[in-house]
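Appendix C reproduces, verbatim, an entry submitted by the partner laboratory led by Prof. M.T., so that reviewers can inspect both the input and the predicted structure.
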Amino acid sequence: MSGRSVEVVIPVLNEAHVLERSIATLRGYLETELPYTWRIVIVDNGSTDGTAGVARRLCERHSDVALRTLAERGRGRALRHAWMESPADAVCYMDVDLSTELRFLRPLLEAILEHGYDVATGSRLLPDSQTQRSPFREMLSRTYNWLVRNALRTHFSDAQCGFKAVSRTAVQHLVPQVKDESWFFDTELLTLAEKQGFRIADIAVAWDEDDDSRVKILSTAWDDIKGIWRVRRTVQAAQPGPALVSTGRRT
């Protein structure tokens, strides 16, 4: 077992029905496949369905599971809180539905801990990616990422895949600069990382759409568009750095 440490953050909002099963699956993977010291951190921000109670029982049962609770909602807020407090060498997050196959977690973390990247991001849009989702969501995703690339002059392929890892150094430098507290957090983080010369690994993953997704597509899309123009104004004068390397591979 390597001496390096990892925290896997799971942001949750009203996920009592799936949380225990997902944590059991995740722990099974981490115990058998990850050669690092690890801990799971559940961040409950604003649940009203008993999610926190399920999480507390998991913490009592497993010393490698921790809970953070926030009164306000927002995935970005949850990640900011957990990542900035973490002492781990690398932090990552994934959606509680485990839409991205867990076999891609090890290469995601190895990009940070073994190969010197600052940020590693899963992509559903690389040639080697395997994605199962509705044509409507596929169209929305491709349109959004096209807009990001053209408006912000970025090179990463998939801004919003809920499967990312960041080094401790990059967290401390980048996260305080990110202003968004919700879904646009990912796009803003990746854009700032690329513009400031951090190395980004773009990793093809296999991903299956969650039919129970709670994302409000239209309002989220509008918030994201406003976020793009806000970030565009802040980075217009920055020199883009060749920060991204696409692995384009499946394992």
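The first helix runs from residue 19 to 33. Additional entries are available on request from the coordinating office.
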